């Protein structure tokens, strides 16, 4: 019997390019503030200049047209938000020019100059395209500054979630349970990259096990020292930002070699 076809999902290149550029800008700003311009620049200067074979393969995939064209100004707007004022003399224009000269943006610009297209990829392919360079920056930062470097990266990544809209505990538990019971009809990065077993669930408590995870597969193979930092460490604070009446608990992850990733949510608002 042939192996099953890998699960894929569609992503908009212009949308994800802009989002990734914002994430790199946040990390770049945090490092400039903490270790200075030269040390921050060195983290990106150390990245390989040429795309690897998998990156070339992904960018050579056939792409469908995007529903709407994005302007150059629209792609750069997230960096202007991060660098709304110069940081140690670095402006939004300086940051944009520097970051776009480095992976993954330099590779994308060279292969797809219009930065347009809807690509169908696996979650691992997506993570390689948009997270490999960031993981290398994180590895260099942690290597240079130890636990302080981890906190620099953690703070930068968490700041990307400042605009999360809070929801009620009822809505949080309802939507979470629905997600675990019924994956979306149109695959997304999560349904294409996770196998989830719902152990039990009601409006008070939800326990689910992720038995297969593309993030763990990718990072454990390529960047094991920063996989948890980049892919898992933000879960608890993000859930707290989403809902104050629900707590999250996890005792093991695939990223750390566990048998599964535990997702246990329980209400603290006193609801029966």
What report would you give on this structure?
The chain has two domains: 9-161, no CATH class; 169-267, no CATH class. Helix content is 52%, strand content 13%. The protein contains 13 helices and six strands. A four-stranded antiparallel sheet has the order 3-4-6-5. Strands 1-2 form a two-stranded antiparallel ribbon. The longest helix is centred in the N-terminal third of the chain and has 23 residues, at 13-35. The protein is globular, with a radius of gyration of 19 Å.
Secondary structure blueprint with pairings:
Blueprint: E1 9-12, H1 13-35, H2 37-45, H3 53-59, H4 72-82, H5 92-100, H6 105-111, E2 118-121, H7 123-145, H8 147-158, H9 169-181, H10 189-193, E3 194-201, E4 205-213, H11 214-222, H12 227-231, H13 235-242, E5 246-249, E6 261-267
Antiparallel strand pairs: 1-2, 3-4, 4-6, 5-6
- Class by SSE composition: alpha+beta
Query: Beta fraction of the residues?
Result: 5-15%
Mean pLDDT: 95
Compute the gyration radius: what is it? Answer: 19 Å
Q: Regions with pLDDT < 50 over 5+ consecutive residues?
A: none
Spatial strand order of the main sheet: 3-4-6-5
Percent range of helical residues: 40-55%
Quick one: overall form?
A: globular
Terminal CA distance reads 49 Å
Domains, number: 2
Strand tally is: 6
How would you sum up the major sheet? 4 strands, antiparallel
Distinct helical segment count = 13
Order of helices and strands: EHHHHHHEHHHHEEHHHEE
């Amino acid at each position: 019997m042939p192996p099953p076809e890998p699960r894929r999902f569609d992503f908009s290149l212009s949308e994800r390019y802009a989002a990734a550029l914002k994430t790199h800008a946040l990390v770049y700003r945090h490092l400039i503030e903490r270790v200075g311009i030269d040390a921050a620049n060195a983290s990106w200067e150390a990245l390989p200049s040429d795309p690897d074979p998998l990156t070339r393969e992904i960018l050579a995939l056939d792409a469908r047209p995007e529903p709407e064209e994005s302007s150059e100004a629209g792609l750069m707007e997230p960096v202007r938000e991060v660098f709304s004022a110069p940081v140690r003399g670095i402006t939004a224009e300086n940051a944009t020019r520097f970051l776009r000269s480095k992976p993954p943006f330099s590779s994308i610009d060279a292969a797809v100059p219009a930065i347009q297209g809807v690509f169908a990829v696996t979650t691992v392919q997506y993570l390689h395209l948009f997270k490999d360079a960031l993981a290398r920056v994180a590895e260099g930062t942690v290597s240079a500054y130890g636990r302080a470097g981890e906190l620099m990266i953690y703070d930068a990544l968490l700041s990307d979630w400042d605009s999360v809209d809070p929801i009620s505990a009822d809505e949080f538990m309802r939507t979470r349970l629905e997600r675990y019971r019924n994956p979306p009809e149109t695959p997304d990065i999560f349904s294409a990259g996770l196998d989830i077993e719902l152990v039990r669930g009601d409006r008070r408590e939800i326990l689910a096990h992720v038995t297969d995870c593309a993030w763990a597969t990718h990072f454990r193979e390529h960047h094991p020292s920063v996989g948890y930092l980049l892919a898992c460490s933000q879960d608890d604070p993000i859930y707290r930002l989403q809902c104050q009446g629900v707590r999250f608990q996890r005792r093991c992850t695939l990223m750390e070699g566990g048998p599964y990733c535990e997702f246990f949510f329980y209400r603290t608002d006193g609801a029966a």
